[in-house]
Design goal:
With 529 residues, the protein is an alpha+beta fold. It is built from 22 helices and 5 strands. It has a 5-stranded mixed β-sheet. Strand 1, helix 19 and strand 2 form a beta-alpha-beta unit. Helix 8 crosses helix 13. The longest helix is centred in the middle third of the chain and has 80 residues.
Length: 529
């Protein structure tokens, strides 16, 4: 039953009209000529409320105006009463619709065009000031009552509407963005974790409270300086948080200036309000630009993360292809050996013994070469016992030992097994590349490899350090020609090391030491594979 009543269009229209009338009545209690926050409610409603509820908004605004006009028409004239009953919102509706549909004041579901919002604020202030001045022109003044200069009154009305809109409308749009961007789920926890809320509560409000106390307790130039100084928190929040910071700081500063007002139409207060309004406008423009730059930076970081994730995935897939190729070579090696043995067995009666031994030796050499090729593509010890085994006993250590280069491997860290397979693969490839780079000048006789792993801030890392040194007595006994074909490096040099490390957010550093050189690198675990 209640659901059926709530879905009735007339019930919805009445509810919107009553809600708008109640909120407007509350805001009118704290509004006056040169501070009119009700104008902010009016513009926010025009920008956010669906078009089908605009008639209800007109009714909700017209009701209090009709009551005021009828009650005071005997004092100020019926022409004034009739003109007062025309809701000023009506004259702003075409502009609001143009901004929503033609100029797209909301470019996306959870973003706001700040430049267009400020333009709407200016146009609305001009229109509503003109409406107020036209109503004032039809007023029949009581005997002996003299109004100030009409230009001065127009200034009051304009500043009141402009500052009132800046006080309320940006806050409403900020709440809209927060609800549409993150939803109502965990809203309070998001607010508690927000840096803007923390800065506003810990720094903005105490500083404004101090300035209000100074402005209220002092007089003359000191009081005015305290009012003008209220623009500083607005600037600070805008620089830190963009237009949202300017919205929060501007609203607080606007209220703080009004709290220090000794009386209505106080010239010093009006001057402070003009300065705060100018500051809010400027900081909103600057904050909007900062927000655009921050959004662009977020997109660039997101694109970079996606590119890195894609590169890491490609590295992983390439390694899987190398593993499959290594498996295929191992199987082919066994098949060739079996076929060769079967063929020699059948031809044994036709082949001399010396030739048979030669054929068996050639078959063993071919099988060993295929095994070494398969092991260089994807080491057998890696498949069976993991990265520490391949760095200590795999193809690379054996090749260095056979060539006459001393090799030490030092592995520490309890988190090595917790690193992803992508990091293990990359560490082995980078170790091969770094050793090949160290051996390129043929001036080393010993290599020491150190591998460390750990975690920081919930992110795992690995550091690889390769020190190479020269012992000139051993250097002449190194077999370089036998070493390079089995090292497994691609020969890309230092730039290749850096490119491969950057895929995993790492860095590579190469430096010279006394009678030695060092290549060190760090990688971060992407948790892929």
């Amino acid at each position: 039953m209640l659901k059926r009543i709530g879905s009735n269009i007339w019930v919805q229209q009445v509810a919107v009209a009553i809600a708008y009338a109640l909120v407007s009545a509350l805001l009118r209690q704290v509004s006056f000529a040169h501070w009119f926050p009700f104008a902010g409610l009016r513009l926010s409603a025009l920008l956010l409320v669906p078009y089908r509820y605009w008639p209800a908004l007109l009714v909700g605004e017209t009701g209090p105006l009709v009551y005021t006009g009828v009650e005071n028409s005997s004092q100020y004239g019926w022409l004034w009463g009739v003109s007062l009953m025309v809701p000023p919102m009506l004259f702003m509706m075409p502009v609001a619709r143009w901004c929503r549909e033609r100029r797209r004041i909301f470019p996306t579901k959870a973003s706001t065009n700040i430049n267009l919002l400020l333009l709407c604020t200016l146009v609305a202030s001009v229109i509503w000031t003109a409406v107020d001045m036209a109503t004032l022109a039809l007023m029949r003044l009581p005997a002996g009552v003299i109004l100030p200069d009409r230009k001065e009154i127009a200034g009051f009305y304009f500043v009141g509407s402009f500052l009132g809109i800046l006080t309320l409308a940006p806050l409403v749009l900020m709440v809209r963005e927060e609800l549409l961007g993150g939803g109502t789920h965990r809203l309070w926890s998001r607010l508690a974790e927000s840096r803007l809320v923390m800065d506003a509560a810990c720094l903005l409000l105490p500083s404004l409270a101090l300035l209000v106390w100074l402005a209220s307790g002092a007089s003359g130039a000191t009081s005015q300086e305290a009012r003008v100084a209220m623009f500083l928190p607005v600037v600070w929040l805008a620089v830190r948080h963009g237009w949202r910071g300017a919205a929060v700081g501007g609203a607080a500063a606007s209220i703080a200036v009004v709290l220090t007002m000794p009386r209505h139409f106080d010239p010093d207060t009006l001057h402070a309000q003009v300065f705060v309004a100018f500051t809010i406008t400027t900081m909103m423009l600057l904050g909007g630009r900062i927000a655009v730059l921050n959004e662009r930076e977020k997109r660039e970081k997101s694109d970079a993360r996606l590119a890195l994730a894609l590169a890491q995935r490609n590295v992983y897939l390439d390694e899987m292809q190398l593993r499959q190729t290594s498996y295929a070579l191992e199987q082919m090696s066994g098949a060739i050996q079996a076929s060769y043995t079967q063929m020699l067995g059948r031809l044994r009666s036709l082949t001399p013994g010396a030739d048979e031994r030669t054929y068996y030796h050639q078959a063993a050499v071919a099988q060993h070469q295929m095994h070494r090729l398969a092991d260089s593509l994807y080491p057998l010890s890696w498949r069976e016992r993991g990265l520490p085994a391949v760095l200590r006993e795999g193809t690379l250590p054996r090749a260095l030992d056979e060539a006459g280069i001393t090799y030490w491997c030092d592995i520490h860290g309890t988190g090595l097994d917790e690193l992803s397979s992508s990091i293990h693969m990359t560490l082995y490839r980078l170790a091969s590349e770094a050793i090949a780079l160290a051996c390129a000048k043929r001036n080393i006789s010993g290599i020491r490899l150190r591998l460390r792993s750990g975690s920081f801030g919930g992110r795992r890392w690995a550091v690889l350090c390769i020190d190479s040194r020269a012992d000139y007595e051993r250097l002449s006994r190194v077999h370089w020609d036998d070493l390079f074909p089995v090292l497994g490096g691609s020969g890309l040099g230092l730039s290749g090391l850096k490119d491969r490390a950057m895929v995993f957010g790492g860095k590579v550093r190469m430096r010279s030491l006394p009678q030695a050189s060092r290549i060190s690198l760090i990688l971060f675990d992407p948790q892929i594979g």
